[in-house]
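User: structure tokens for this one?
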Amino acid sequence: MLLFRQCYIVLGNEHKEHWEDVITSFMVKKQIQAIRPYIPQKNPVLGKHIYEMVLNEFLNTDTKLLLDTLKEWQQGVHALFDLQTIVNAVEEKLKNSDTSEQQGLLEVSGYLYSLQGEFDRALRVYLQLKHTDVFDLIQRHNLWHALLNNLMNLLDLDVERTVKILVLKREAILPAKVVKELETQGRPDYLHKYLDALFQEDSKCGSEYHEMQVELYAKFEREKLLPFLRLCNDIPLQKALDVCNQFKLVEEMIFLLGRMGNIKEALKLITEQLQDVDKAIWFAMDQDDDDLWEDLIKYSRTKPKFITGLLNNVGTHIDPTRLIEQIPSQIEIPHLRDSLVKLLQDFSLQIALRVGCKKILVKDSNYLMEKLNRHQKKAVCVADDACCQECGSTLISTDEINEIFVFFCGHVYHSHCLPTRTMPSIQPRCQICFVPVNSKARKR
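Assistant:
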């Protein structure tokens, strides 16, 4: 290789014919692979037959090296070699090759087709090879029609990557077409993957399929169904409830019943199906319904576990005597003493909080009352040129003495200008600031 490196020094950039002679001699000696990195691609550019000769040698000896060389030489609008000549040679080789050679030859042909701009042929080759370069080809050249036409093959190849492209390019590949194709192919698993990814990306896009998604989540990803139901407000609740009942999804049924307003049935599921006292208490707290608390207490009367849970948690939410009075005298309750102590502590804390709040409220009321009283005792200044708000004439006149009314709002009137002066039973009011009660009601 030292000899070949010296060619750059000896031959330089102008002796094109000498370069071609040297490469040909290496070809005769079967050493072309060793000199490949040193073959000049510019300064000088050799004849196309030289590059094609090298590529043809690699076609017969090492298809991987052929592909690497094509990727290296394909720059410059394929000026180094005639692309169609290489394509023909590869296709001819494919016809006469055995199975062991076809993998490498197909990779080369797929790459050559993409260089030619025959993207559909390249895509078919990559799909035949199950090669992930097919996704780069689709995205690089916007082959969205090809993606939809080969949807099942691409999903089988890499479902996550295919779904990601479908979701990101949903304006070019309409969700309606994707859903129709997947339904036609009878692949609800792929349909679920696609609609789930679409919902995560944009919850409003594909809202017409939310009802369908309830059953898909129930079949394939039950853990995602409850968060999905919480976020969606456009699902028919009864249909969703029927699906959850079919698949025995109790948590989801409780949520749906609560949203439908059937809170007693929801509580019944919690107590009888889940038998979860903490969840039942939390549900009753969340609904803040007195009848619901009564149902929970009645259900718990013969269940020591539920009674203990209620004693430990409801001291600040309901009157403890409601619970204690309904506990049967003969029932044995574990840790009853500790539960009663905690109940009394919680209740005492609640009373203390109420007393504290009352003291704060009284103190604030007194402060505000004193502030109002001080404000009302302040003098109100009336200017010499002040005018009556009713008649517009000057209030203070040297010709006559008029009785005037000054209100805290700052407005002033002649006594005789106030209509209430003719009705002694009614206190004088500012005609600008006073709004009758009936007028307020009409405005509302």
